[in-house]
Structures are given as structure tokens and as C-alpha cells.
Design goal:
Hypothetical protein af1432, 2 domains
Length: about 375
């Protein structure tokens, strides 16, 4: 017999922790609509994100290395899939709402512009006097306003819980958000899981990509406690392996060890605090989903290493500076020549949304570009004119 939404909702009520969000108890959508017969509200949110244009464009957006650098490095899409997988595993272990955790993991980077954090830094500077820019608030704009698959209404019409999770920190964000989202001290627990999964995923895969790109060697990584522990775990699991054979198991252990720590430490906090409701879990002084202090310091050491040896390596920075220059020139050209933008952006200029300005429309347009399209448009509109 087919399984129904009501059956899945009953399973959530039976199996999830008191502090987990339940789809049947959602505050709903901005535009009321009938429920799906087979998917919970949060499962439906997840599927709407996966089928969105913004999600598809993640395939051609930078993680660290500008898209096109090589086929074996992470893109924003592969990073997103890794985050969603890790978040599902942690959320399931802690008896949280797995479809919602997955949906948040899949959507957490929807608002990133082309060229990764370099692009975000440039847009933040360009928009500093025009309402600001920050990728979390941009993700909310995408799902609320910029994705329009349904006739007669704007946005993907996601649940309140999903929309508020995208901001991570209530409404404290640079850039326009939504008046109906209430600020709380902490994100939902499901959003905390996705945030922690994001952190541990990029540390592990940036160590891996840095090795592939040649900015450091395995011998260099020996100064990191995370790498030393991961190598020890790899040797324990594969006692007959040596040399190159241990590389992949070591990289895997840079994920597995922090994940195990995160689950155990978070479970201990949840049991100690025992929040009776999802909202009570948001109103704690500190996040309940977090590593042990020891693992947090190990992760922080790895982050500092990556900033020094990878993100700010000379040849990586040279590419990032060029990307920022092209993005700025493209933005300013389009702002001065709006007829060069796509039909939907020109229509926004003619019929502005509440709070719109020519700067915001240009920002939305440029932020939605992939690396490849931004480079092509820069060459067409700016590069050929200056050559």
C-alpha cells in the first residue's frame, strides 16, 4: 500500500525528539495551498529547492577555486551535496527532522554570487550604501521573490521554518530580509546542524582540494592535529596500507572524526538542557549543536591553516583579485546600461518590488550569475570595449 503524508507526520510525532520540528506543526506558508498527499511540508520544501534554477546554477559557482580551474575540485554544488549528506546523518542521529535538515543543507548556499566569497566581498562593498549584501539574506530573497515557478505568486512558497532557517541568526543580516521572520537568540536545531555540517565539510574538502592544487603537501599537513588524528584513524582501519594508499582514508577521517564528536557532544547538551519544544531550543544562551571544546579548537586550527596556506595563497589570491575586478566592472556597467540585463531584471526596473532600487535589481541580477556566465558577460560588455 502507498504511504501517505499523514503516515509520515505520525512517524515524526512518534519518533522525533520533543525539540525537533514537526511538519504537521509548521506555521505554514505565506500563500496557503493544499497539502501534498505523499510528502510532508518539509519534504516538499526540499524538493522545491532541488528543482529551482538557483540550485542548478550552483554547479557553475566557485567554492574556493574559480569554476573552470579543474574538473576534480569542489564547486558550490558538490560542496552543497556533501553538506546535505553530513547534515542528514547528524540530524538522524539526534532525532531531528531529517527532511528539513536536508532541505536547509541543500539551500544554505543558494545566495552565493559568482566567484565565491570574493564575489560576496565585492557585492558587499558595492551595496554598502544601498541596503547591503550577504548571502544568507540573498538566499531568502531567492526563495521568496526571485524564483517564480508558479503562476500568480512570487517565490517558492516555502514554510516559515525553512525560510527562517536560511538566515541562521534570526533577522540580523546585511541585506533585505522579510518582516514576518522573528528574531531569536539561536537558529532552529535543524539549522544549527546544517551550519555545523557546512563548517566541517569545507574544512575537510578544502584540505583535499588544497592537496590536489599543490598549495601544500601531506608532509605540511602533519602540523595539524586534525590531520594527525585522521592519519592515525586511517592506519587503525587499514593496518596493511601505507603511503599513497592512506590518503583517501585519511581525508575521509577528517570528516568522520568531527562528525562523531559533533553527534556525541550535541547529544550530551540536548540531554542536559532537555528543551521541551523546538522554540525553547532556540532560546538558549549558547548553541546546543556544537563540537566539544577540544574538537572546536582542532577545527579552528585547521581553518586558520587554510586561510593562511590556501585561501590567501599568492596564486589563489591573484585569481580572486581578477575575479573581483571583473565582477565590479560588470556590475557598474550593467547598472549604467540596464538594457543589457535580462528581461526579468528590466521588468523589475519598470515595475519595482517593494524596497527595490536600481542598485538592488542590478545586485540580484549579478548575484544570480554563475562564474562562467559572469566571465562571458564581462568579456562581451567590458573586456571587448577595453581591448
Amino acid at each position: 500500500m502507498q504511504r501517505t503524508r499523514q503516515e509520515f507526520e505520525e512517524l515524526e510525532r512518534r519518533d522525533l525528539a520533543p525539540f525537533a520540528l514537526k511538519a504537521a506543526e509548521s506555521r505554514g506558508r505565506r500563500h496557503p495551498e493544499s497539502e501534498d498527499p505523499h510528502r510532508t511540508a518539509f519534504g516538499r520544501d526540499r524538493d522545491r529547492v532541488v528543482h529551482s534554477g538557483a540550485f542548478r546554477r550552483l554547479e557553475y559557482k566557485t567554492q574556493v577555486l574559480v569554476n573552470g580551474t579543474g574538473d576534480n575540485y569542489r564547486t558550490r554544488m558538490t560542496h552543497t551535496l556533501e553538506v546535505a549528506q553530513l547534515a542528514r546523518a547528524v540530524g538522524r542521529a539526534l532525532r531531528l527532522n531529517e527532511p528539513l535538515v536536508e532541505a536547509i543543507g541543500l539551500s544554505h548556499d543558494l545566495g552565493h554570487p559568482p566567484f565565491g566569497h570574493s564575489g560576496e566581498e565585492e557585492l558587499r562593498e558595492l551595496m554598502v550604501d544601498h541596503g547591503g549584501f550577504e548571502h544568507n539574506s540573498q538566499a531568502l530573497r531567492i526563495v521568496d521573490l526571485l524564483e517564480n515557478p508558479y503562476p500568480g505568486r512570487m517565490g517558492l512558497n516555502l514554510t516559515y521554518e525553512m525560510r527562517s532557517a536560511l538566515l541562521k541568526h534570526g533577522t540580523k543580516s546585511s541585506g533585505p530580509t522579510s518582516a514576518d521572520i522573528e528574531a531569536e537568540p539561536q537558529p532552529w536545531l535543524e539549522a544549527q546542524v546544517a551550519d555545523a555540517a557546512d563548517s566541517l565539510a569545507y574544512i575537510s574538502h578544502d584540505l583535499d582540494d588544497g592537496l590536489r592544487f599543490g598549495v601544500f603537501s601531506e608532509a605540511d599537513l602533519g602540523e595539524l592535529e586534525l590531520w594527525r588524528r585522521a592519519r592515525g584513524e586511517a592506519k587503525r582501519r587499514f593496518p596493511g596500507a601505507a603511503g599513497e594508499e592512506l590518503l583517501r582514508p585519511t581525508v575521509h577521517a577528517t570528516l568522520a572524526l568531527p562528525v562523531a564528536d559533533l553527534i556525541a557532544a550535541s547529544d550530551a547538551r540536548l540531554q542536559a538542557v532537555a528543551p521541551p519544544t523546538p522554540l525553547a531550543a532556540r532560546r538558549t544562551a549558547e548553541r546546543l549543536i556544537a563540537f566539544t571544546p577540544e574538537m572546536q579548537e582542532i577545527q579552528s586550527e585547521a581553518k586558520r591553516y587554510l586561510f593562511k596556506r590556501f585561501y590567501y595563497a599568492d596564486h589563489v589570491m591573484a585569481v580572486r583579485r581578477e575575479a573581483r575586478r571583473q565582477l565590479r566592472e560588470l556590475f557598474l556597467f550593467l547598472h549604467a546600461h540596464p538594457h543589457e540585463m535580462a528581461d526579468w531584471a528590466r521588468a523589475r526596473l519598470a515595475r519595482p518590488l517593494p524596497g527595490d532600487s536600481s542598485w538592488r535589481v542590478t545586485c540580484d541580477y549579478v548575484a544570480g550569475m554563475t562564474d562562467r556566465f559572469a566571465q562571458q558577460e564581462w568579456e562581451r560588455l567590458v573586456g571587448q570595449r577595453s581591448s
